[in-house]
């Protein structure tokens, strides 16, 4: 159970009423506050009124689908989003990750797995302290290509000072690179230090995240010189 002072609000967006009710009942019993939305329009109405701490978003909905809703949400919001996708829809999962989803859960939903992934996403959102084997925590502002990362405020700024929207996982990855400047990190190290062990070992998860980050920070994303690939090993921020 989650104490009242730590209770988080979850917004469940799915066009299936029975699924919304099942998720709401299960999560409420575990101390979360839960709101429901039957489609993308209702999703944005709820967010505009009272932004939740995390969104559970179905991919396949009539009208505006979940991926389109995610794209719209990511224009100006970094609220963690866990996508619901039918089993086997790998392409949708890849697209969702590229567009800024924080995680995904396959249908039929395993409630315990969903709860674990929610808690993992919320931990990342809270920017918890680094693991013992992580170097001393970096602070202040760190240049990343044409951008600047505010480690204390958990924000990314463009070359003209404008704030660029990043997800909690994207911030965690940038922070790990800032803490390990000049060190080559493999994918397992990035997952571990970014507090992302709740993920399945989805082959391209880290690669997709870094590809998305490069489009934000690199002068020439197709020829990155800020976060570079070390072939056969991983990545380096140099």
TrEMBL record:
Question: Where on the tree of life does the source sit, at the highest rank?
Answer: Bacteria
Instruction: Give me the positions annotated for DNA binding.
Output: 139-238
Q: Which residues form the signal peptide?
A: none
Q: Which GO terms describe its biological process?
A: regulation of DNA-templated transcription
Q: Which residues carry this modification: 4-aspartylphosphate?
A: 58
Q: Name one GO cellular component term.
A: protein-DNA complex
Spans through the membrane: none
The Response regulatory domain is annotated at 9-122
One Pfam match, given by its short name, reads Trans_reg_C
Q: Which PROSITE patterns match?
A: OMPR_PHOB, RESPONSE_REGULATORY
Q: Which CDD domains match?
A: trans_reg_C
Q: Where in the cell is it found?
A: Cytoplasm
Can you name this protein?
Regulatory protein VirG
Taxonomic source organism = Shimia isoporae
